[in-house]
Predict the structure.
Amino acid sequence: MQCEVCGNSITGKIFLIQIEGAVFRVCSSCSKLGSPVREKKDVKPAIQMPRPSNQLLKEPELELRYDYNKIIKQGREKLGLSQEQLGRKINEKPSVIKLLESGKLKPDDLLAKKIEHALKIKLLIPPESEE
């Protein structure tokens, strides 16, 4: 085998060193140019237990109510909040609340959950119970 630094034929022990992040197999005279590295032995990977199915961990599929805009407005008015106050409460702009209540913007799941929590209403329902 040849030294990967100087190119001379290696007689005797082969040294494994690291020079500026790269690992080389070198002769004894070139071994002083870098820091020694331990050679990794072949390690068998640990036996992995099968992961639980993601379907067990997922929440049941939910859909946004078709009348979400009316429910949001009714919930907000029931608590006596303005659109600006609701926006501050859920950390959204008042224009987002206006668009939601007008039906021009459908909330994603995260926004729907924030609104559900703030107004104590249900926007996400199982698909079969939607009427």
